[in-house]
Structures are given as structure tokens and as C-alpha cells.
């Protein structure tokens, strides 16, 4: 039994004696999320269409969150249950299996060895929690959403992590967070696997990702951020962020500034460790002894002006250093805290410079409340490679509608369409059609 499971068992045992206490039951909440997801990926110029996928499934996402027992120290428990059912999977996407995995992750479902999707899959998690004053500790299944680690929820079921986390709000305006992650279940897999980054190979994994940092609300319109992340034997990362809202005339301007500084850690910092697979994606010149070593500085600025029903964004991101931007990436679908992490691409390659523009409209004032649309365009260039600087672009369109009243109030419909072109990765066209509804059980 690993350390997090042992600690969880102890916490649950202690909790069992308190479960009937006032507050634990009365403040409990439970919901069942229903997510019907159709996914279509059409890749270009690939042999035997191996990169294509057409999958349709029904997802069930059960969430339970207890209240806390009374007293100076309060105890509680959260639980999540996930089930994905295949409705159709006409396309196949054969991916080499990772060592130790029973099945390789597909787009919506785990895949059998022949590339066919399983009929259904499920996973579950439990989290014990303890609260003292305005500080809360959690151990078990986590869905972190921080600048240095963000869970992925871009398919039928969300990605989950196992570990522990402490969040404190003892000082007004300051939120402090720290913790450790040991493993993950990716969005389309039931396997509990260790952690790595893009570029790693073989058995090069880590079961220790440490993170800490905080958000300080200096004024009601200005938030400053600092976070630190360390994936043992891969990289250490510092993050600085600033978010500012400024009322300008009838509208408002939001400024979002981000800076990441990442360097090697442990085995990634030695030639022998990198030879064992503890490598980063990126491009290095012939004879460079640092091949595969994490060396990255990424900064970005995003400005969004909102006026009534309209919003418009303009942003720029620069990836500097020899390696690609490092983040937890097991290859089964991962998210990074970049302004360029979009429907298909992430634009995080070594040397890449990206401009982006986005426009959105809320149709409420035109008599259609609940209807929203947006379109974004990203263009990246200067990607380092053996064939000179490479380029890519992506166009994303999104249309969302949520019923505002009636027996199905809250039913959401979303169509997401994206096109990616260039010579960095395979050209692709992608469509997602999602119906979502949440039933409140408690």
C-alpha cells in the first residue's frame, strides 16, 4: 500500500466514528452529471487513416460531497464515480501500449489491442477531508486546477489524480495551496499510472509531483500569483501570474500575464538519466550534450475587452529555451495552463511564437438567452526543428446553448469545430457535439 492509500485508510477510519455528527449529513450534496459526447477526428495525409476516430458515448459522472462534522476539527468525505458507455465507435485509432497498461487510451474509450473501443469502462475515487479554521486538507482522488497542474476534462469523462492537498484561506485575500500527486487515471483510461512529460520513453516515470503556491488579491481588481511545481527526475517550474480588470467606459479590459521558468531535475539533468528515457520533447543541434534536458521559459499576455454582449481577445505567447514547455503529460490527454491550449493544439513547442485572436457574442439581447458563440484563430511560427523553422495555425468555432426554463432547464448543447494546419503536426479537422445535463440528488 502506498503512502497516500495508507493515509486515506487511516483518515476514513477516523471519519467513521464521526459520520453521524451534525453537519456531515445535513450539508451533504450529490449530483449525477449526464454527458452525451460525439467525437469525430479527420486527420490528413496519414497512412491507413490510423489517426482518425469517430466515437459516440454516454458518460455518467456521480459526485458526492459531505459536510464537515462539528467541532474545532471537522471531518468529511467526497466521492466520485465515472462510467462511460459506448454507443458507437466506427473509427479506430491504434496506439502503442505503454508498459504496464492493460489497454491504451483512445479518444473517448480505452482501446483493445486491435484498436477497437471497449463497450464500457468505469473508475471511481474517494477523498477524505479535514477542516481546521479556514484550512482544509484533502487526501485521495483530486481534480486540481492550478497553473502548474490542471486536470483534463475534454472528453467523455474527466482525468483524475491521486495524492494530497492543503488549501488555506487564513489571511484575507490570500489563498495558499500545497500538495503532492503520485499517479493519474487519464480521461479515456481506467489504468492508474505514474507521471511523466512529453518526450519521456520506456519506463521513465515519476510518482512524486510536488506543488505549492498562492493567489493574493491585492485589490478587488488585481490578483497576483506565484506557484512552484516539481516532477521528480524531470523538471522544476516557477510560475508568476497577474490578472487585472479595468473598467473602461461602458466596458472592461481584462489583462492576463503569465510567465513560466522550467529547468531540469534529477535524472533529466544527467546524460545517463536522459539515456534511460527521462527526456523532454524539443529540438537540439547535432552534438549537443544537453539533448532532452528541460530548459524552457514561456511567457504570454492576453487582453480581453468586454462590452455588453461582445468580447474580443488579443494575445501573444513566446516559448524560449531548447525544450518544449514541460507539464504533466502521460499521452492520454492532458491540459496545460497556457493561453494557447486549445481544442486541438497547444502551441508549446521549443522556440514557438504564437499570436491569437478571439471574438465571442452572447445572444441574450437578441432574444435568445442561453445562446453563445465564439471563434478563435491562433498562428504559431519559429518552431525549432532539423528542417528549419516550422509553422502551424488553428481555427476554433464554438456554439453553446443552455435551456433557461421548462422541465429540462439546464440542459446544455455544445458544438465545437476546429481545424489545424501546418508542418508541425498532422493536419486535422475535428468536431465535438456534446449534450450535458446535471441531476441534483441531494
Your description of this structure?
This protein is mainly beta. The chain has one domain (20-440): Porin, CATH 2.40.160.10. 4% of the residues lie in helices and 52% in strands. It has two helices and 22 strands. It has an 18-stranded antiparallel β-barrel. Strands 4-5 form a two-stranded antiparallel ribbon. Strands 8-9 form a two-stranded antiparallel ribbon. A hairpin with an 8-residue loop joins strand 18 (353-362) and strand 19 (371-383). Mean pLDDT is 90; it is low at 92-102.
Class by alpha and beta content: mainly beta
CATH topology: Porin
The termini sit apart by 33 Å
Percentage of residues in strands: over 45%
Task: Name the shape in a single word.
Answer: globular
Instruction: Give the rounded overall mean pLDDT.
Output: 90
Proportion of residues in helical segments: under 10%
What string, H for helix and E for strand, traces the elements in order?
A: HEEEEEEEEEEEEEEEHEEEEEEE
Which homologous superfamily in CATH is the superfamily? Porin
Q: Over all CA atoms, what is the radius of gyration?
A: 22 Å
Total count of domains: 1
Q: Kindly provide the name of the CATH class.
A: Mainly Beta
CATH architecture: Beta Barrel
In quaternary terms, these chains amount to single chain
What's the total count of β strands? 22
- Residue windows where pLDDT falls under 50 for at least 5 positions: 92-102
Largest sheet: 18 strands, antiparallel, barrel
Question: Helix segment count?
Answer: 2
Amino acid at each position: 500500500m502506498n503512502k497516500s492509500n495508507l493515509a486515506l485508510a487511516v483518515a476514513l477510519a477516523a471519519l467513521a466514528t464521526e459520520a453521524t455528527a451534525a453537519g456531515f449529513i445535513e450539508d451533504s450534496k450529490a449530483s449525477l452529471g449526464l454527458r452525451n459526447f460525439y467525437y469525430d477526428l479527420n486527420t490528413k495525409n496519414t497512412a491507413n487513416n490510423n489517426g482518425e476516430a469517430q466515437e459516440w458515448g454516454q458518460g455518467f459522472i456521480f459526485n458526492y460531497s459531505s459536510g464537515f462534522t462539528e467541532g474545532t476539527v471537522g471531518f468529511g468525505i467526497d466521492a466520485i464515480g465515472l462510467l462511460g458507455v459506448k454507443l458507437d465507435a466506427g473509427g479506430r485509432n491504434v496506439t502503442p501500449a505503454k508498459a504496464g497498461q492493460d489497454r491504451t487510451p483512445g479518444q473517448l474509450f480505452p482501446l483493445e489491442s486491435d484498436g477497437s473501443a471497449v463497450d464500457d469502462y468505469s473508475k471511481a475515487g474517494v477523498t477524505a477531508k479535514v477542516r481546521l479554521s479556514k484550512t482544509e486538507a484533502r487526501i485521495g482522488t483530486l481534480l486540481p486546477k492550478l497553473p502548474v497542474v490542471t486536470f483534463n476534462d475534454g472528453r467523455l469523462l474527466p482525468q483524475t489524480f491521486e495524492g494530497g492537498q492543503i488549501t488555506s484561506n487564513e489571511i484575507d485575500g490570500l489563498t495558499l495551496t500545497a500538495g503532492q500527486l503520485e499517479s493519474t487515471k487519464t480521461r479515456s483510461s481506467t489504468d492508474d499510472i505514474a507521471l511523466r512529460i512529453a518526450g519521456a520513453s520506456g519506463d521513465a516515470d515519476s510518482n512524486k509531483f510536488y506543488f505549492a503556491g498562492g493567489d493574493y488579491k491585492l485589490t478587488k481588481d488585481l490578483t497576483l500569483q506565484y506557484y512552484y511545481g516539481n516532477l521528480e527526475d524531470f523538471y522544476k517550474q516557477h510560475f508568476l501570474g497577474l490578472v487585472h480588470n479595468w473598467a473602461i467606459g461602458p466596458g472592461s479590459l481584462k489583462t492576463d500575464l503569465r510567465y513560466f521558468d522550467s529547468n531540469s531535475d534529477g535524472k533529466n539533468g544527467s546524460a545517463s538519466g536522459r539515456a534511460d528515457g527521462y527526456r523532454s520533447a524539443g529540438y537540439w543541434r547535432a552534438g549537443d550534450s544537453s539533448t532532452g534536458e528541460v530548459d524552457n521559459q514561456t511567457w504570454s499576455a492576453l487582453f480581453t475587452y468586454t462590452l455588453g454582449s461582445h468580447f474580443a481577445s488579443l494575445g501573444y505567447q513566446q516559448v524560449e529555451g531548447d525544450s518544449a514547455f514541460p507539464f504533466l503529460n502521460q499521452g492520454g490527454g492532458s491540459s496545460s495552463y497556457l493561453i494557447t491550449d486549445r481544442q486541438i493544439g497547444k502551441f508549446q513547442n521549443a522556440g514557438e511564437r504564437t499570436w491569437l485572436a478571439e471574438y465571442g457574442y452572447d445572444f441574450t439581447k437578441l432574444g435568445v438567452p442561453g445562446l453563445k458563440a465564439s471563434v478563435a484563430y491562433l498562428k504559431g511560427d519559429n518552431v525549432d526543428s532539423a528542417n528549419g523553422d516550422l509553422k502551424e495555425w488553428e481555427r476554433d468555432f464554438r456554439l453553446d446553448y443552455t435551456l433557461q426554463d421548462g422541465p429540462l432547464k439546464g440542459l446544455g448543447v455544445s458544438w465545437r469545430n476546429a481545424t489545424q494546419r501546418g508542418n508541425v503536426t498532422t493536419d486535422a479537422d475535428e468536431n465535438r457535439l456534446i449534450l450535458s445535463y446535471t441531476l441534483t440528488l441531494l
